[in-house]
Amino acid sequence: MSQIYRLLPPTVTKAVLFLHGVGANGQDLLGLSSFLQPALPSTVAYVAPDGFDLYDMLPVGMVAESYQWFSLKDRSPPVLSVEVDRAAVRFQDLFEEIRDSLALDYRDIILVGFSQGTMLAITAALQLPSPVAGVVGFSGAFMPPSLVRSHPPFCLIHGKQDEVIPSYATQKAAEGLKQRGCRVDYFIDDYLGHSIDEKGIQRMIKYASQWFQPLSA
Questions:
Q1: What is the average per-residue pLDDT within 84-113?
Q2: Domains and their CATH numbers in the chain
Q3: Of 29, 61, 67, 93, which has the fewest CB atoms closer than 10 Å, so is most exposed?
Q4: pLDDT at residue 1 greater than cutoff 80
């Protein structure tokens, strides 16, 4: 059964919500909190839910706590767009559950995604009724959403050597988001594959600090 992993301070005024990649789980990205904690206010909570469903392409005979936000069995763009849209609708309920439990406003929350988690974070952030503080997306892609209601800022990071999702997906994502009225900064790192490196972590820290600063001053 999927879980929601939390690191909660005694008083919570803000939160970072992590969305993992396909075949992983909430704990996979929660470790990024150790890099953010020294730079962000001590009142920031860190929350990392498991994906909605068990990973449907797990190798036979392998048992693991592996989850997905949506299926990738059919990766054709029309099918992926529908899958991401459906997942974004499901995510809105999860987001509201987490937000209500922490008694936070939308602008008190940052989304951080990796790979499939980035795909979901981008679409969900656009479809929420009010903008979150910002979205950091690693190694992701953009599927044009059926609805846009919010325009949060984005920081997108991708490796040029990514063997899973080509880096041009982030360039296209930046273009698509800018066309929809969002502020986007993106970075393509020449020697990085499908992963998060020190440069990416430092950019995540920089943008999260900036997005929370006006609210914590």
A1: 97
A2: 4-216 (3.40.50.1820)
A3: 61
A4: no
Residues tagged active-site: 115, 162, 194
Distance, CA of 49 to CA of 60 (rounded, Å):
25
Burial grade of 207 (CB within 10 A; 0-12, 13-18, 19 or more): buried
> What is the pTM (predicted TM-score) of this model?
0.94
pLDDT at 39 over 70: yes
